[in-house]
Specification:
The complex is a heterodimer. Chain A is an all-alpha fold. Chain A has helices spanning 3-28, 45-56, 63-76, 83-98, 107-133, 139-167. In chain A, helix 1 (3-28) runs antiparallel to helix 2. The model of chain A has no long low-confidence stretch (mean pLDDT 87). The model of chain B is unreliable at 278-293 (pLDDT under 50). Chain B has helices at residues 2-39, 41-117, 278-292, and strands spanning 126-137, 142-147, 159-161, 166-173, 177-182, 189-194, 200-204, 212-214, 227-230, 242-249, 254-258, 267-272. Chain B is built from three helices and twelve strands. Chain B has a six-stranded antiparallel beta barrel. The chains are: A mainly alpha, B alpha+beta. Chains A and B meet through helix 3, helix 4, helix 5 and helix 6 of A and helix 1, helix 2, strand 1 and strand 2 of B.
């Protein structure tokens, strides 16, 4: 394999890394956990990834990555097809338009921003799916999932930051 | 030359326009998907089962280390209670032997009486045991993905049991993997009967962990602790399968706790009672939607 080809492949890999990492996170989040109330303790990792990568690497994590990520999540779940795409696109829209507010701010501000965006996104999806089924879905489970998603964001953010710093060093 | 330049300008304009409105187009496509999902289930179902077959092997790989970790934890956790468990199991075993003897005697008696009445027995059930590779339970849906290894006996609409009772039904059958809708899912509607009073109703999932009993007569005397079993009405589920116990009776709703622990399912049993065939499986999904509406 020539050096040029190898470099090209490495560059492609780095371009797709945010998408691939996000897909891996989504797949991990559906692995059976084998303990009581496990299902209620699943954060919405897709939203976390969309927030993180849109904020930190909008150059390589674009609209289409968000769309296909939503499609992967929709395939795994039995929720109405398109509902995950919808929520991921809303998160993308919010972050890409308001990213300037998080520039050079401490992590706590970013976390707070994520919490607000997550609340808005999840409620939008809840409303949409409720209209789809013509009945209100349980808000308590949604709020529980929201809190758990917000609480675990620093962990996923840290791992994603490691991926960005270690594996995407050359490009950054 | 001029025409080519005009064409180039047009193309670049279109590209710019598409880029500008890409997010609107993608939002619209998500809505269209939801609409198609609502109206035409056949296209979505076929595409979705193929897509599930593509994505599921990736989760299947991730399950191995997760199960290993859980196994190690369980090993050390169970070591603590192993002695007490042994004593409890010995007692249970004694009781089971006694019950087994009784059951055998009753079975023979039942067979003799059935012969006297010229009774036609229901078809024998066949089982397929499948490993769960993915589970989901949030405000939007409750489902499982199980590895069915392309078993031809697995069909849409079949009953899925855990070790304690009914937990759902097959929703999608792929080449290697099948999607199971849990009884707590908003799409799940099962005709049931209260075992003690024989009052009929529909067990309806609402995406919480406790489904509710609906279409029950107002004067029905249902108490906390009553067992709920399948009624066999509509011919989708066979009668008599245990589902859960009534845990709360209010004016507006009756809540039922499932017997099977839906959070800890490692293996499921897919049961073929020869009640559902492929030809009517579509009708079945449509009827489910009608109940939902």
């Amino acid at each position: 394999m020539s050096d040029e080809l190898r470099e090209n492949l490495a560059a492609y890999f780095q371009r797709f890394l945010p998408f691939l990492t996000s897909v891996a996170w989504i797949l991990v989040s559906y692995v059976p956990l084998d303990f009581a109330s496990a299902n209620n303790l699943r954060p919405d990792v897709g939203l976390m990834c969309v927030f993180f990568w849109t904020l930190h690497r909008p150059d390589i994590f674009n609209l289409f990555s968000v769309y296909f990520l939503g499609l992967v999540a929709d395939i795994i779940t039995s929720a109405p097809l398109g509902s995950n795409i919808f929520s991921f696109l809303i998160m993308y829209l919010l972050v890409s338009n308001l990213a300037a507010y998080f520039n050079a701010k401490p992590f706590v501000v970013t976390w707070y921003g994520f919490a607000l965006f997550c609340l808005f996104t999840m409620l939008s999806r809840w409303l949409l799916v409720s209209v789809y089924y013509s009945q209100f879905l349980p808000l308590s489970l949604l709020m529980f999932s929201l809190l758990f998603t917000i609480a675990t964001y620093p962990v996923l953010g840290l791992v994603n930051a490691c991926v960005q710093n270690v594996l995407m060093k050359d490009e950054a | 030359m001029k025409r080519r330049k005009v064409l180039f300008i047009h193309l670049s304009n279109i590209r710019l326009l598409v880029k500008k409105f890409a997010i609107v187009i993608l939002f619209l496509s998500a809505f269209v998907m939801m609409l198609i999902n609502k109206t035409d289930t056949v296209i979505i179902e076929k595409t979705s089962s193929v897509a599930t077959d593509v994505v599921s092997p990736l989760i299947d790989v991730l399950v191995i280390p997760a199960r290993m970790l859980a196994g190690v934890y369980d090993y050390f956790h169970e070591l603590k209670t192993i002695r007490q468990d042994n004593v409890k199991l010995r007692d249970e075993n004694k009781q089971l032997v006694m019950m087994s003897n009784k059951a055998r005697a009753l079975e023979i008696e039942n067979r003799l009486l059935a012969n006297l009445l010229n009774y036609t027995p229901p078809p024998e059930a066949t089982y397929v045991t499948a490993r769960v590779i993915a589970e989901e339970g949030n405000a939007f849906s409750h489902s499982l993905i199980a590895y069915t290894a392309g078993n031809p006996n697995v069909k849409k609409g079949q009953v899925v049991l855990s070790e304690n009772g009914v937990i759902g039904r097959i929703e999608q059958v792929g080449q290697m993997y099948s999607k199971i809708i849990l009884i707590t899912d908003i799409n799940s509607k099962i005709p049931v009967v209260v075992e003690r009073t024989r009052v009929r109703g529909i067990l309806s999932g609402d995406n919480t962990s406790i489904p509710k009993l609906v279409f029950v007569p107002l004067d029905a005397k249902i108490f906390i602790g009553d067992r709920v079993i399948t009624s066999g009405v509509a011919g989708v589920f066979p009668p008599g399968l245990p589902i859960g116990k009534v845990i709360s009776v209010d004016k507006n709703e009756i809540k039922v706790k499932t017997l099977g622990d839906l959070d800890r399912i490692e293996f499921v049993r897919i049961v073929d009672y020869n009640l559902v065939d492929e030809s009517n499986s579509q009708d079945l999904s449509n009827s489910g939607e009608k109940v939902n509406e």
